């Protein structure tokens, strides 16, 4: 857990960004030849355990939350898990991620499935996705989600303050949100697609970590540009700098538009190459995604059986 540090404006201004170099590096990551065969399956299973399995829709009901929880507990078909000898590894997703109104039923459903507590219940809060409600309402939303059973809270930062360059105000709000989270882990969503520049993305990352973010997260999934690699490179660089300054490890969560197994491998390799093996697990890395798991399960089926599954063979995907 990151308890944060005092606001230090000088930490925001130490970095310069060479945009062409960042884009070149991001391009290399995306085009890399992917790992093959059993190594690929192992990495895909790792990706599964890092997923925040998400539903964030206006038409969410108990029935799709129920389905989400079933998938969270048993994300990959048993025969595929057995084929790779993973049946004793307890393969589950990292968390389910829902709106605050759905937290209580998530808790109840996971309990009814005898899910162990390693599946976290994450809830977006603070006027997600825009954050345009009074601070008192945003803080109350966090407290209620935690009271209902959320063990992780994904907050959104105040983009108005960020775009005005009022970083200390961003810091103060996020700090209050951290207090409202209590023992729940706090992920801070930067909504990078709305921040305007790499410099702002770096400053927002650093400000949130100083204020106590346990994870920094790219996007809500509702912006027009969501999780992209160049932005991720800037954010993980901020994580590395914060670690060098404080000795505190903060996690990273790309979210929004991550749909394919190949994407998930690219994100994992970014973590491994930029931050090292200690960041390639679900304590330090999550993939926020509503429709990624199906493609990973399809690829694992292919790794196991050498053909793609017919739709009826992965009915819950
Ligand atoms: O936090 C997670 C995102 O809202 C998921 O976005 P997605 O639906 O594009 O996967």
TrEMBL record:
It comes from Dimorphilus gyrociliatus. The keyword Transferase does not apply. Its EC number is 4.1.2.4. It catalyses: 2-deoxy-D-ribose 5-phosphate = D-glyceraldehyde 3-phosphate + acetaldehyde. It is found in: Cytoplasmic granule; Nucleus. Pathway: Carbohydrate degradation; 2-deoxy-D-ribose 1-phosphate degradation; D-glyceraldehyde 3-phosphate and acetaldehyde from 2-deoxy-alpha-D-ribose 1-phosphate: step 2/2. GO terms for molecular function: deoxyribose-phosphate aldolase activity. GO terms for biological process: carbohydrate catabolic process; deoxyribonucleotide catabolic process; deoxyribose phosphate catabolic process. Keywords: Cytoplasm, Lyase, Nucleus, Schiff base. The active site is at residues 217, 253. Interacts with YBX1. InterPro entries: Aldolase_TIM (IPR013785), DeoC (IPR011343), DeoC/FbaB/LacD_aldolase (IPR002915). Catalyzes a reversible aldol reaction between acetaldehyde and D-glyceraldehyde 3-phosphate to generate 2-deoxy-D-ribose 5-phosphate. Participates in stress granule (SG) assembly. May allow ATP production from extracellular deoxyinosine in conditions of energy deprivation. SUPFAM superfamilies: Aldolase (SSF51569). Belongs to the DeoC/FbaB aldolase family. DeoC type 2 subfamily. GO terms for cellular component: cytoplasm; nucleus. This is Deoxyribose-phosphate aldolase. It comes from the Eukaryota. Its main location: cytoplasm. It is an enzyme of class 4 (lyase). Pfam families: DeoC. Signal peptide: none annotated.
């Amino acid at each position: 857990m990151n308890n944060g540090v005092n606001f230090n404006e000088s930490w925001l201004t130490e970095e310069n960004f060479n945009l062409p170099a960042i884009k070149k590096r991001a391009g290399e990551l995306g085009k890399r030849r992917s790992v093959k065969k059993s190594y690929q399956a192992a990495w895909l299973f790792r990706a599964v355990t890092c997923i925040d399995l998400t539903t964030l829709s206006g038409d969410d009901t108990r029935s799709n939350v129920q389905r989400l929880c079933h998938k969270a507990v048993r994300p990959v078909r048993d025969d595929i898990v057995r084929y790779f000898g993973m049946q004793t590894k307890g393969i589950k997703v990292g968390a389910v991620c829902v709106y605050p109104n759905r937290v209580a039923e998530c808790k109840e459903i996971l309990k009814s499935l005898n899910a162990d507590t390693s599946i976290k219940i994450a809830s977006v809060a603070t006027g997600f996705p825009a954050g345009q409600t009074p601070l008192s309402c945003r803080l109350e939303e966090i407290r209620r989600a935690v009271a209902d059973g959320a063990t992780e809270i994904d907050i959104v930062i105040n983009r108005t303050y960020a775009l005005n360059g009022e970083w200390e105000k961003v810091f103060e709000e996020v700090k209050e949100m951290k207090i409202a989270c209590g023992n729940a882990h706090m992920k801070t969503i930067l909504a990078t697609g709305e921040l305007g520049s790499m410099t702002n993305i770096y400053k927002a990352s650093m400000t949130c970590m100083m204020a106590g973010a346990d994870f920094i997260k790219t996007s809500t999934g509702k912006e027009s540009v969501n999780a992209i690699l160049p932005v991720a490179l800037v954010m993980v660089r901020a994580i590395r700098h914060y670690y060098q300054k404080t000795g505190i490890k903060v996690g990273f969560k790309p979210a929004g538009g991550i749909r394919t197994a190949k994407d998930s491998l690219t994100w994992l390799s970014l973590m491994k190459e930029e931050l090292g093996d200690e960041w390639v697990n679900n304590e330090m890395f999550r993939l926020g995604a509503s429709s990624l798991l199906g493609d990973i399960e399809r690829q694992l089926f292919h790794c196991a059986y050498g053909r793609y599954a017919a739709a009826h063979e992965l009915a819950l995907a």
